[in-house]
Design goal:
The chain is mainly α. The chain contains 16 helices and no strands.
């Protein structure tokens, strides 16, 4: 990994806290920034809402006097915009958490949440559902199920290839194969789809977006993301030990294989949940951990919570751009790629500052 080397000795692990010491003001500042961005974003869109009107509407809603609110504002703000921003926040935080966790267990900063085929599987599941004219609920269920199936296939095949060892190389290579397979299946679906109706619908979904999300999607994400995120946050200190290497971690009493599969399972649940709702939105799980690492260093005890906040802020701002930049909405995947590719190139040129 060169300049991006993780902590490699017990001494460096014991000195990690001192080297990466960050006051609580960092978390406080990020939390305040997230709240500010979220509230201000409520006023952005084709139907503009002033901050004074926004605050007045929120007060009426919280005090149970929503009947005094203008109907259009009630519909736009509470049925469309707030659920959408909530979904963007959850997805941004979850994808960043998943990416940071994957990079930790694979000890590789180039790893992203779709390394084991989760995104390609979800894309294939959604493409099939859209081709068969299923409603959006079944599209999301199909994407979610196929995403989990793709990662399960990767783990099963890699276990057979590696002969029950914990080889991460086998997982990564198998993930590339599974991703290629499901990408080819997506191409077949697009090839046979009706070019007048089904093909544009499939293509737009694969680009990623939040145009059709609602309160039910926010509740679904809140449940599944909580199930996946809570274990990762509870065991994040173990990722610091795992970064020492398998032999060192085992000597400290860590069941490396079990820990690795736990992290993969939780991270896959996060990725599958997000992709099933918003489509293929790349780069979030790759670049946000780098930004967070620049802020607090490689200590996973701090890195994971900070990644959640930075990811949520990032995707809310990206969604604002998608909604407001032009008269038509831009797919999120296009914007994240435009931002992510140059940033990652900058990180590669910058060198080791993002790690130690």
């Amino acid at each position: 990994m060169g300049d991006y080397e993780f902590v490699a000795s017990r001494e460096s692990l014991s000195g990690l806290q001192e080297k990466c010491s960050t006051p609580m003001s960092m978390m406080t500042s990020l939390t305040i920034l997230f709240i500010t961005v979220f509230v201000v974003s409520c006023s952005f869109g084709q139907f503009g809402i002033s901050l004074s009107t926004l605050c007045h509407s929120l007060i009426l809603k919280l005090t149970g006097h929503s009947e005094q609110m203008v109907h259009a504002i009630d519909t736009v703000l509470f049925k469309i915009r707030l659920p959408r921003l909530a979904v963007a926040s959850i997805i941004g935080g979850a994808m960043a958490l998943s990416g940071a966790s994957y990079q930790g267990i694979f000890k590789n900063p180039m790893v992203s949440p779709d390394i084991l085929g989760a995104s390609a599987g979800a894309g294939f599941g959604a493409a099939i559902a859209l081709l068969l004219s299923f409603n959006m609920f079944f599209v999301q269920i199909s994407a979610f199920s196929l995403s989990l199936l793709a990662v399960s296939l990767t783990l099963l095949v890699s276990k057979i290839i590696a002969r029950k060892s914990s080889s991460t190389i086998a997982m990564i290579l198998t993930g590339m194969i599974v991703t290629s397979l499901f990408s080819a299946l997506i191409s077949i679906i697009k090839y046979v789809a009706d070019p007048e109706s089904k093909l544009p619908e499939i293509t737009f979904w694969l680009m990623g977006g939040l145009a059709s999300v609602g309160t039910s999607d926010a509740l679904f994400l809140l449940l599944t993301v909580s199930v996946g995120a809570l274990p990762l946050l509870l065991i994040r200190w173990r990722l610091n030990i795992l970064s020492l290497g398998d032999d060192e971690a085992q000597s400290l009493g860590i069941d490396v294989l079990r820990l690795r599969f736990l992290v993969i399972g939780c991270s896959t649940l996060l990725t599958a949940s997000c992709v099933s709702i918003c489509g293929l939105v790349g780069w979030v799980g790759l670049i946000i951990p780098h930004i967070s690492r620049l802020l607090v260093g490689p200590d996973f005890h701090k890195l994971l919570p900070v990644s959640i906040l930075v990811g949520a802020i990032f995707l809310v701002l990206v969604d604002d751009t998608a909604r407001c930049l032009f008269s038509v909405e831009i797919p999120l995947g296009i914007i994240t790629s435009i931002i992510g590719a140059p940033f990652f190139l900058y990180m590669l040129v910058k060198g080791k500052k993002g790690w130690l």
